[in-house]
## 1
Amino acid sequence: MLDISASMKLKSFYIDETIEDFINLELSKNDAEVFSVNYNGKKVWIKRARATSSSKIHKILYKIFKFESLTPVEDKSSVEAVFFESTKLIKFKEKGIPTPLVLAYNSEYMVLEDCGRMVNSFIRKRDISKEKMDFYINNMLELLCLIHNKNEYHGGAQARNFTFLENKFYVIDLEDSFDKSNISFLQFRDFLFFLLSLTKTRASFELDYSSIINRYIEKSENKDFKKRLKSLANKISFFTSISEISFINNLLGRDVQGFFKLFKILKDL
């Protein structure tokens, strides 16, 4: 768990003398939790401090299935969350993992350089080509493997938390935290959630999940993940079959449908 006393001692940081007054003015004009502004001719993002916790549906699924991979994130206050994320962004950059530069932070907000569009916005296009899809997926895999091979975890490794700008990929939204005592579990959870995010693509062709999994295994140190994915899929095969019943499937939300769709694919690998 987080050291609450440490998080409450968060010190402010500003990359220059003018940014604090500028950000305070922008915050007074915009109530959004996350929004972009132009600062010194460059686009930057202001992210208000916000508490973190898993969604109700996530917690319900965890209570039903009791699978480690569905473990909810640690609940954090807004101050704890902004301290955790800003620190992790800086640590990742020091380790050579591409993240947006932290321009300012305090107990109320953080300011980040712009690092492009979410990859999710590209791969969900109906007219995306297989070549482009492979380009985005391969580069996200490269980053995910880099994180994992550095003995770290993302915590929310979905396509929407990778960005693309000027032929470079970045990782964002590192606010989710877990007990790091079992790093292998956290990395397995990362990869599972990464695969789940790919099920939401609207491409006209099916993704080759076996190839994606093999590429991850080739580039990472987690050689047993394919076996673990199949084992997990087999454990919930009954629920996967139930979810395919038409009237039940219609009652499920899109995220839950995506969850079962992926596990059917994994079971048939």
## 2
Amino acid sequence: MLAGLGITKGIAFATTKWLGAWGGAISVVVLLAVLCQGCWVERAYLFQRTPTEVSRDRYFPNPFAESSEIARYIEANSAAIDKVAILGSEPQLFFYSNRKSATGHIYMYGLMEQQPYAKAMQREMIVEIEAARPLYLVFVNVDYSWQFTNSSPTLIFQWVDDYLDASYRLTGVVDIGWDHSRFVWGDTATTYTPLSKNFITVWRRVRSF
């Protein structure tokens, strides 16, 4: 708003004080030159790079670019009534897959903070997931998705391995890379070892109780 006000006032000042009728035209030319210079400097971001490339440039290793592919897999292999649990802070997966969350906790940040309710919130999330019995559980092994600290409660990590072993089968691995990410689905995922420290695992429920 201040930039727009400055331009408007500058044109008015140039027109009345300095250059008369030519002041407005010259001011517009200067403005266009400034805008073109900005577009030229940011030409790769604005015109050349794809949205996926821009996302990786700005937010790597957050799995924003990978989320749509994960969601397509979940949507194609589930029914509209099936629920999904995401252990991580990737709520866009619910939107992309058109599936509801198995828990009200769709971000992990509050559960990891040094605050008096963090452990209770983790316990609540665990209870909600176990009660909902989601068809898919997605575990996001990316530090930014958790913002885990040395003082964070570890209850959810102590719980998840046993829960997955008892009721779920690994059905997908997303190996997050700088240039591209590798998606491994089905039985192949059970023997695949991620090359990156940043990866996502997708688990499908195999027990109905």
